[in-house]
Amino acid sequence: MAVPPSETESTGNGTFLSQFYSHYLRNRIHALYPYFPRNFFSNFAIRFRSTPRRECLPLPLPSSSFDSPVLVTKRSRVHGIVEGILERVLMNLHSVQKNLQFWQFRAKRSDSEKARFMIFERGPRAFVDETAKLLRGLTAQGSSSRSLCQSASDFIDERVAVLSSLRCSLATFLAQVYMEVDKIGEDLVANPEKELPSLLVTISDLFSTLEASIGHLHAVRESDSSVDGTYSIPLLFEKVPEINQEESQWTDCEIRNAINSIYQNLDKLDAYISLLVIKHRKPRKMTQYWIRYTFGAVGLSVCSIWLLRHSRLVGSSDLDNWILEAKNSTISFFKNHVEQPILSIRDELFETFRKRHQGIMELEEVQLTSNSLHRMLLAFSEQAKGKNIPANASDQEMLEIVMDRYEKELMHPIQNLLNGELVRAILIQVQKLKLDTETAMLELNQILRANEINFAVLTALPAFFLSLLLIMVVRAWFKQDTKAEGRGRLARIQRRLLVAEVKKRIVRYQHYVDQGLERDAQCMFGLALYSLNRLYHSVKWHAQASGEWESLREDIVDLAAPGLQTSDKLSVISHMVTYDCLLPSQSRR
């Protein structure tokens, strides 16, 4: 069943036309001026890229090559060619892998989720077409829902198949180039210019193999394919001219023509893969969430119209009044919850130190009342007992004597009120009550002073939480946790997942080698190189900051070495996870 294209696929026509006319212009200039370099526009565009060229995975050369005067003083053409091939193939492989992961994730979803994707996440045009098709199916009393689910599965499976084939071919080509450089690494270090002709011929043959593996994709299109349009331009690579094969050394003109052919093949490969990826790429975020953006745009329009009706443009002062009220509210919030609590805390702290002598005087007043009560109790007790009582006797003991005498005096209150000790005992109890009241007031004063600071801190809590939230947002923005190059916990998890991915692909590579599946083994080795390249870029900055980069770089180069045994690579991976940039987050250890 044919599936109409989405808007994201139709937008690829403009990119394809621009690439077509750029190739046409380059070919016309080369026809008029045969000696005009074909890669002039590519090199010219590189000079004006917004981002600097990223260093790719190091070449598999002997360690002594890093100290070779040839590489330090003069960058040979052979290294430029190989590094250019690796960089551009890795970039294309990353583009394919990113889109393939999206479609593979969609392929694992349920039929209802696939149908929802077909209707709601491919743009308004697909929404209208699929809705109309669904309604026609319901009118015809057919299984429209089953047909929609089957159409969604075919739509996704076709993209998974094409991108998987493209990824495997690119990974195989990457592995073949990398292994070829590793095979002649010693000779490249010793005499790079002498090995250049044979390397150019080998790379040309590898391009021919790549052409045979992915060049047929322009013609493989079923009549009910969901991909819009056809792949109108087949992939035809230039071959290195086989001239002067009898001579032991090529001339500079022949080498220059061969290099131009390699760069031209890279340009064709980039254009071809870009076209395939555009036709099979995942929908953009704006296309996937176009319904949300539509409602957001409608809401924004309504709000804009509402604000316009209350603005000066239509003679209303409501908007100005609201802005003034918001300004005053902000100033009031700052004063009440930030400025005044801080000043109150400051004044209270300094007030405590300034009035500490006053606090001592109050304590002395309580002490005077206590001493007076003690003397009154002592005098009353000596008179009641008729003997001297030690001066260090406790107030509690003497108070018991007073209470006993008070109880006896109450038996004849009127008589003892005039002639007895009843009035004296009552006055002593009043003095005791005064002492207890002053003690309680002193403690209450201390509690109130402490709570004044607490109330000021409590008033400042809203501003504190607002500042804390702002700090967390700024911290998350600076950490940039969404990618493996970030500095947060999620970035560390992404880097550890890359290490696990490298390990898994190395093990699968060895399994294919043991089974004698050479093609699958090369594909898996190329994917391992791709994962190592991503790991190389994600840990470089962090390892340089911690001083671990030199050691970690050597480990990554060892993992990419084709000749190293799988057991040795697994041993390297086991101690790679001990580097600081690959450790789990501090809070999760």
Walkthrough of the structure:
The protein is mainly α. Among the domains are: 49-243 and 250-285, no CATH class; 489-582, no CATH class. Helices cover 75% and strands 0% of the residues. It is built from 22 helices and no strands. The protein has helices at 7-10, 12-32, 40-47, 69-73, 77-107, 111-120, 124-139, 144-183, 185-190, 192-214, 252-280, 285-288, 290-309, 318-354, 356-385, 395-409, 413-419, 422-479, 489-515, 518-546, 549-560, 566-576. Helix 5 (77-107) runs parallel beside helix 11 (252-280) and helix 19 runs antiparallel to helix 22 (566-576). The chain is elongated, with a radius of gyration of 43 Å.
Q: What is the topology?
A:
Layout: H1 7-10, H2 12-32, H3 40-47, H4 69-73, H5 77-107, H6 111-120, H7 124-139, H8 144-183, H9 185-190, H10 192-214, H11 252-280, H12 285-288, H13 290-309, H14 318-354, H15 356-385, H16 395-409, H17 413-419, H18 422-479, H19 489-515, H20 518-546, H21 549-560, H22 566-576
Subcellular location: Mitochondrion membrane
Protein name: Protein DGS1, mitochondrial
Keywords: Membrane, Mitochondrion, Transmembrane, Transmembrane helix
